Request: fold
Amino acid sequence: MGASAERVTAALRADVLSGALAPGARLTEPLLQERYGTSRVPVREALRALAGEGFVQLRPNAGARVADVPVDDLADLYAVRRVAEGVTAARCAQRVAAGRGGELVAELEQLVEEGFAAVAADRRADGARLNAQFHHAVARASGARSMEQVLRWASDRIQWAYATTVPQQGERAWTEHRRITRAIASGDPERAAEVMERHVSASARSFRAPGAARGA
Reply:
């Protein structure tokens, strides 16, 4: 895949995950060419790539559209996240204990402040993006490459569900992110894993499928 196709793929993926392109939206080549300032070939490559990832549906003689959010898969995705993120949080705390986690803690603290600001301004898409950045930062800093890849795959789909079907999680989620940051900063691996796992479990419980009663 060329650089132009990679750019269009990344931009299209971001627009789908944020809800800027809603599930079911038609994705015509002229529209995407204009939206991303590119030619037909990179657009076609991007559509094929995202169809392979499950974010786009390509239908013979009917064109492309944004796929439906895989709500039925979320319970399994959260189960994967709970275990994997407990491991990554523990490894980050170990790095702090070894004197190598100062930059991560500073990054997480900044993301928490930005997350609270997004909640206050009711910027749902920004909140979903910052939430993903927070968890990706922990996974990346853990040094567990396989865990990072698994979590990015699962987190993208969970971010997509939240951005397109329910209100942002609000202060609860960012209060828990602050607790995770403090647990990692303490250098206690067991504590960091416990707090992270509780957060992922709470996020799973808070999700409501499309059409479900809000606040139930």
User: Anything to note?
Assistant: The beta strands are 56-59, 63-66. The chain is about 70% helix and 5% strand. The two ends are 46 Å apart (CA to CA).
